[in-house]
């Protein structure tokens, strides 16, 4: 294979090939194998309604069960998968597995919840994402309303027209759309008018120093108010303390997600949590 030979030549004969590039090549090859050998797993982090304390959704977060390195977090390999053109295949696996699992929970008789899946910008190009998701929903039997997609502002600004068209198509199918890490991207708020998102996720970097830091508190309050005034749901991520909970509750935030309630859990543990019912502040 000429292309592969070329790459090998580069690999072995370029003097300034650094350790970082070698590491990327090695991870790339291992990622290809990981897909074939089914080494990926999803953990699920509860999203709790502040009023009822009930788990109303989960965010699916990928991990890699690496044969030597153990459980590897997404920050260690998702950027490489994006760079090396593997995110399409991995993203498809995540979507299918999240939908399959959520449908399985419903079939067990657990209270129905939304499952939120993170999407990379690249997943919007090359393939018809709406068509792929339609196929996955049909295959797994999950109703569209129980699938939410999380995109960051950076995903939207990559190619505004085509991304917004795809998001509108997905929305039309009955899926939920959330803007992840809201407020951290390079963005104009005008996209909030251009297509109907359902939910804003206040980034953990703002929530972290609430209520002690006046600036972060002001930003968090502004995002919660923006969402409410636009008729959107708002969820705070990275909630770790009862003080953050109280602040967010006071400001009228709808939902929270974070270590205060639970870290991301394997599917079986999440099912147990779901069966146990409502979470209350002070119940830990
Ligand atoms: P994200 O979508 O913003 O996910 C939230 C991250 O914050 C998760 O890290 C979660 O474990 C962590 N987190 C949740 N609550 C707390 C808390 O209270 N305190 C602290 N310190 N951290 C908290 P994780 O699982 O390492 O994922 C990191 C990022 O990797 C995600 O950020 C997301 O951007 C990306 N990612 C994860 N799974 C996927 C995937 O399937 N596809 C794509 N494209 N990206 C993914
Ligand atoms: Mg997310
Ligand atoms: Mg996030
Ligand atoms: Mg974040």
Automatic annotation (TrEMBL):
Residues 24-278 form the EAL domain. It comes from the Bacteria. This is EAL domain-containing protein. It comes from Chitinimonas arctica. The chain holds residues 664 to 947 of 947 of the full protein.
């Amino acid at each position: 294979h000429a292309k592969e030979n070329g790459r090998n030549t580069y690999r072995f004969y370029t003097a300034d090939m650094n350790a970082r590039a070698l590491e990327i090549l090695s991870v790339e090859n291992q990622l290809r194998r990981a897909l074939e050998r089914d080494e990926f797993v999803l953990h699920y982090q509860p999203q709790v309604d502040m009023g009822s304390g009930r788990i109303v959704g989960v965010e699916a977060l990928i991990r890699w069960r690496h044969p030597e390195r153990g459980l590897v977090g997404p920050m260690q390999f998702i950027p490489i998968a994006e760079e090396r053109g593997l995110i399409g295949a991995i993203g498809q696996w995540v979507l299918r597995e999240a939908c399959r699992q959520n449908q399985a929970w419903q079939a067990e008789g657990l209270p129905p919840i939304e499952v939120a899946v993170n999407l990379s910008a690249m997943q919007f190009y090359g393939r018809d994402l709406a068509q792929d998701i339609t196929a996955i929903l049909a295959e797994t039997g999950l109703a569209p309303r129980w699938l939410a997609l999380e995109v960051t502002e950076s995903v939207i600004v990559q190619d505004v027209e085509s991304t917004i068209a795809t998001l509108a198509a997905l929305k039309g199918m009955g899926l939920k759309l959330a803007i992840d890490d809201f407020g951290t991207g390079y963005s104009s708020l005008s996209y909030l008018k251009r297509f109907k998102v359902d939910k804003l996720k206040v980034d953990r970097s703002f929530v972290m120093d609430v209520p002690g830091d006046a600036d972060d508190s002001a930003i968090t309050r502004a995002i919660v108010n923006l969402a409410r005034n636009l008729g959107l749901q708002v969820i705070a991520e990275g909630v770790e303390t009862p003080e953050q909970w109280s602040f967010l509750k006071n400001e009228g935030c709808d939902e929270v997600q974070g270590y205060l309630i639970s870290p991301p859990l394997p599917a079986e543990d999440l099912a147990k949590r779901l069966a146990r019912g409502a979470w209350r502040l002070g119940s830990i």
